[in-house]
């Protein structure tokens, strides 16, 4: 969808109290929806992915780049499948570049900020693997849309590239062994560094995601059970109690609609995975809807809305799930989730609808698309992932405060540059 007409995609709604209500209510609803989304990810989606990891014997980064990415992007895939058959395929320049840059630059910054400014050690192979496939995905997208139409064999090439990505995931451990032998290193299981923190979840709950890493490192909340009765602790306890009360109705609804993934049969795990996707899609829709209303109330230009708030809203599920696993010390899983989601969004969420449309619906076997101004946007995406990768290489693949700040500064620069070009031209 284009940034210029995105406000027409949502139902009209009028809040009381005039201009104050048109700004205040969307903010409150957005915060509440974000809170509920964090509960869905923290209590259901991430535990479901971790349970599937054990059942399928997958590493965390592989599961994040495949299962977690597919679960987050499944609603977008279904939406694109439906819209492709009823309207001309349209790639929103602002949302495409905004979501991509947000995923690779802003989310790592948020992950390190919420981890208490600790160092999060990353694995070099997963980041290298995902970055290469991300660049390949953006490159093939730029190629297939250059003439304003997509053929069935071009969209099939996109799907084949994702199949290759899955094949690489299947032989992930073997490829790690080969890569480490080539550079003269042994496989290192390694313990977490002394200053790597494993923090508590966003909200206290009964059925927690396991926070004990294989190294035996425990969260501080499980080591230090006694908290001094100082004023900040009492204030935080009061806030937690208020949040628990406010989210009790929706917590009850979540327990009814989403089966628990703990000690359940495979069929229930699939149902949990599917229901989490539905809830994340609904909550993301509400967040973007409210952000759009807020932007209209503040008279923010549509181009600016598309590249900033709307694009960030589309990446909310990736942000929340990545933050949750990053707080558990799983930095590679967090980044594999964000980059893997972008790869899935490009190759599958775009490639599959285009392939079905061109091969089954169109008599000339070409899907017409509208992608004005996307060339320089895709170039920005490639530059952003390369800068992120170089930053991590220079920092020995550690996500720390200086990398977080560098990514945040680069994100601000890219957004400023894009807004300037959109508004000027």
Name a few traits of the molecule.
425 residues; mainly alpha; A middle domain of Talin 1; three-stranded mixed beta sheet; disordered N terminus
Which residues form runs of ≥5 with pLDDT under 50? Answer: 1-5, 186-230
The end-to-end distance, rounded to whole angstroms, is 19 Å
User: Which percent range describes the beta-strand content?
Assistant: under 5%
Largest sheet: 3 strands, mixed
Helix content: 55-70%
The succession of helices and strands, N to C, reads: HHEHEHEHHHHHHHHHHEHEH
Pfam family, one: Na_Ca_ex
Family: Belongs to the Ca(2+):cation antiporter (CaCA) (TC 2.A.19) family. SLC24A subfamily.
Membrane topology: Multi-pass membrane protein
Transmembrane segments: 20-41, 93-115, 127-145, 151-168, 267-291, 303-326, 338-356, 376-394, 403-421
Protein model, in words:
Keywords: Antiport, Calcium, Calcium transport, Ion transport, Membrane, Potassium, Potassium transport, Signal, Sodium, Sodium transport, Symport, Transmembrane, Transmembrane helix, Transport. Its main location: membrane. The chain crosses the membrane at residues 20-41, 93-115, 127-145, 151-168, 267-291, 303-326, 338-356, 376-394, 403-421. The protein has a single domain, classed as A middle domain of Talin 1. The chain is globular. Helix 1 crosses helix 2 and helix 2 (60-84) crosses helix 10. Residues 1-5 and 186-230 have low confidence and may be disordered. It starts with 17 loop residues before the first helix and ends with a helix. It has 425 residues and is mainly alpha-helical. Helix content is 70%, strand content 3%. The strands form 2 sheets. The chain has a 3-stranded mixed β-sheet.
């Amino acid at each position: 969808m284009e940034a210029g007409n995105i406000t027409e995609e949502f139902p009209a709604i009028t809040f009381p109290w005039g201009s104050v209500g048109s700004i205040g209510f969307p903010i409150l609803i957005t915060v509440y929806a974000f809170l509920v989304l964090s509960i869905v990810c923290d209590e259901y989606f991430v535990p479901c992915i971790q349970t599937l990891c054990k059942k399928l014997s997958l590493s965390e980064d592989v599961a994040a780049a495949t299962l977690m990415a597919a679960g987050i992007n499944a609603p977008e895939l279904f939406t694109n499948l439906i819209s492709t058959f009823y309207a001309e395929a349209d790639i929103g320049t602002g949302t495409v570049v905004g979501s991509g840059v947000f995923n690779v630059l802003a989310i790592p910054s948020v992950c390190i900020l919420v981890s208490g400014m600790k160092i999060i050690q990353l694995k070099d192979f997963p980041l290298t693997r995902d970055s290469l496939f991300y660049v390949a995905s953006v490159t093939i997208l730029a190629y297939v849309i250059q003439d304003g139409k997509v053929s069935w064999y071009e969209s099939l090439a996109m799907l084949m590239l994702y199949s290759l990505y899955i094949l690489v995931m299947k032989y992930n451990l073997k490829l790690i062994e080969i890569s480490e032998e080539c550079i003269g290193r042994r496989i290192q299981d390694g313990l977490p560094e002394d200053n790597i923190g494993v923090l508590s979840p966003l909200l206290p709950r009964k059925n927690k995601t396991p926070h004990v890493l294989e190294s035996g490192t425990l969260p501080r909340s499980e080591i230090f059970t006694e908290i001094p009765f100082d004023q900040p602790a009492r204030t935080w306890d009061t806030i937690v109690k208020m949040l628990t009360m406010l989210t009790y109705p929706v917590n009850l609804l979540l327990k009814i609609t989403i089966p628990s993934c703990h000690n359940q049969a495979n069929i229930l795990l699939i149902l949990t995975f599917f229901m989490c996707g539905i809830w994340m899609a609904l909550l993301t829709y509400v967040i973007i809807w409210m952000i759009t209303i807020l932007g209209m109330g503040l008279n923010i230009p549509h181009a600016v809305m598309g590249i900033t708030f709307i694009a960030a809203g589309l990446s909310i599920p990736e942000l929340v799930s990545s933050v949750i696993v990053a707080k558990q010390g799983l930095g590679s899983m967090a980044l594999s989730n964000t980059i893997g989601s972008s790869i899935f969004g490009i190759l599958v969420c775009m490639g599959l609808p285009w392939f079905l449309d061109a091969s089954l619906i169109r008599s000339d076997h070409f899907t017409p698309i509208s992608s004005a101004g996307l060339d320089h946007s895709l170039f920005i995406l490639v530059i952003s992932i390369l800068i992120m990768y170089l930053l991590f290489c220079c920092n020995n693949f550690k996500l720390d405060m200086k990398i977080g700040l560098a990514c945040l500064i680069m994100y601000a620069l890219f957004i400023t540059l894009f807004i300037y070009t959109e508004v000027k031209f």
